[in-house]
Amino acid sequence: MLLMVMFLPACVGEKPVLRGTDGNTIPPAFASFGGIPIPEPAYVNLEETRALGYGENWSGTLVFTTPFPAHEVFDFYVSEMPKFGWSDVATVRARISHMTYIKDRKAIQVLIEKNSDSESYVTVTSIPNNTGISDIR
Questions:
Q1: Quick one: residue 133, left, alpha or beta (phi over 0 = left, psi -120 to 50 = alpha)?
Q2: Side-chain half-sphere exposure of 107, counting CA atoms within 13 A
Q3: Please, which pLDDT band fits residue 31 given cuts at 50, 70 and 90?
Q4: How far is CA 22 from CA 11, 38, 122, in A?
Q5: Could you tell me if 114 and 70 are in contact, meaning their C-beta atoms sit under 8 angstroms apart?
Q6: Are 121 and 65 in contact (CB under 8 A)?
Q7: What is the pTM of this model?
């Protein structure tokens, strides 16, 4: 009985690990969208998300909600995008904030909307950047 009481708390705190049929761990949903920061937690809207590719080579639109006010999500992207190597092209803080970044041969647009007082709706669109401009400083 004493052994059971000692080991029970250790079992309760562990999260189960989802594995594929090959035994490998299944990556989290946001692993497909590499090269950009995602606030934690965030919840993918599968009905609105349309993307091709994987990792840093994805293109399309990622849509998610996050339980942070829009102004905090805006500040998160202003702070974190440069850490991922992105250069700011244009930033507009408004009811629906617009942010555009470029890096190498890719452009990212981030739209942030207030979903409620404590939740935001975020749309991240990734497209090829064929302008020949890869960095603005």
A1: beta
A2: 13
A3: confident
A4: 25, 28, 34
A5: yes
A6: yes
A7: 0.76
Domains of the chain: 32-128 (3.30.310.80)
* Phi, psi at 55, each rounded to 5°: 65, -135
Supply the DSSP symbol for 30: G
Buried b (16+ CB within 10 A) or exposed e, 114-130: beeeebbbbbbbbeebe
CA separation for the pair 27, 24 (Å, rounded): 9
What integer best gives the mean pLDDT of the chain?
Answer: 83
d(CA 78, CA 108): 13
The token duo for 125 is: 């669109």
Query: Could you identify the residue written with the tokens 């950047």?
Result: 129
What is the reported pLDDT for 28? Answer: 66
More confident call, 111 vs 34:
111
- Give the torsion through C-alpha atoms of 108, 70, 94, 106, to 10 deg: 0
